[in-house]
C-alpha cells in the first residue's frame, strides 16, 4: 500500500483483514508514506468490535507493533492525556469501537515520516481470530 496525499485531498482509509491463528506469530501488514513531509495517521487493530458486523470469532485482545524499513521496532512515548477517541474516529469516518479494544495497544495516533513501515498484528489473548487493521490519515 502507498499512502500519499493527493493535491486536492487525502487518504480516507486503507484496511486489511487478517486471520490470527491461536498462539502463533503475528500477521504483517505493510504500508508506505509518500511525499516529502510526515503524515499524522491513526492506525488501529479492531478485534472485539467486529462482532457488531457479524464476525463470529474476532481477536479478543488485538495488539499492534510498528517497524520501520530497517526492521527496527518503533515505540512512541504517548502523553498521559485524555483523548476523546470516539470523536477522533468519527472525524475520519471510522466506525466506533464497542468491544473494548485497548488504547495504545490496539490503536494509536502518530506521525509517520516518508518511508516504508510494517504493522505486526497479534492477539494478546493467544486465542486467535479475525482482526481488521485500518490506517486513516488525519486531515
Report on the structure:
By secondary structure, this protein is mostly beta strands. It has one domain (2-137): Sandwich (Jelly Rolls). Helices cover 5% and strands 41% of the residues. It has one helix spanning 85-91; strands spanning 2-3, 14-20, 27-33, 39-46, 62-68, 73-74, 107-112, 115-123, 129-137. It has a five-stranded mixed beta sheet with strand order 1-3-8-5-6, with no helix packed on it. Strand 5 and strand 6 form a beta hairpin. The model is unreliable at 1-9 (pLDDT under 50).
Topology:
Layout: E1 2-3, E2 14-20, E3 27-33, E4 39-46, E5 62-68, E6 73-74, H1 85-91, E7 107-112, E8 115-123, E9 129-137
Parallel strand pairs: 1-3
Antiparallel strand pairs: 2-9, 3-8, 4-7, 4-9, 5-6, 5-8
Instruction: Report Rg.
Output: 15 Å
Global structural class = mainly beta
- Largest pleated sheet: 5 strands, mixed
Strand proportion? 35-45%
CATH topology: Jelly Rolls
Task: Using brief descriptors, characterize the structure shown.
single chain; 139 residues; mainly beta; Jelly Rolls; five-stranded mixed sheet; four-stranded antiparallel sheet; 5% helix; globular; disordered N terminus
Quick summary of this structure?
The chain has 139 residues and is mainly β. It contains 1 helix and 9 strands.
Amino acid at each position: 500500500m502507498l499512502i500519499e496525499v493527493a493535491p486536492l485531498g487525502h487518504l480516507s482509509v486503507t484496511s486489511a483483514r487478517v486471520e490470527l491463528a491461536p498462539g502463533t506469530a503475528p500477521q504483517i501488514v505493510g504500508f508506505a508514506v509518500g511525499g516529502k513531509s510526515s503524515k499524522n495517521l491513526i492506525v488501529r487493530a479492531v478485534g472485539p468490535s467486529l462482532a457488531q458486523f457479524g464476525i463470529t470469532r474476532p481477536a479478543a485482545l488485538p495488539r499492534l507493533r510498528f517497524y520501520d524499513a530497517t526492521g527496527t521496532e518503533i515505540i512512541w512515548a504517548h502523553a498521559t492525556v485524555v483523548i476523546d477517541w470516539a470523536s477522533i474516529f468519527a472525524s475520519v469516518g471510522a466506525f466506533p469501537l464497542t468491544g473494548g479494544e485497548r488504547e495504545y495497544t490496539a490503536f494509536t495516533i502518530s506521525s509517520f515520516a516518508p518511508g516504508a513501515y510494517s504493522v505486526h498484528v497479534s492477539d494478546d489473548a493467544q486465542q486467535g481470530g479475525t482482526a481488521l487493521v485500518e490506517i486513516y490519515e488525519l486531515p
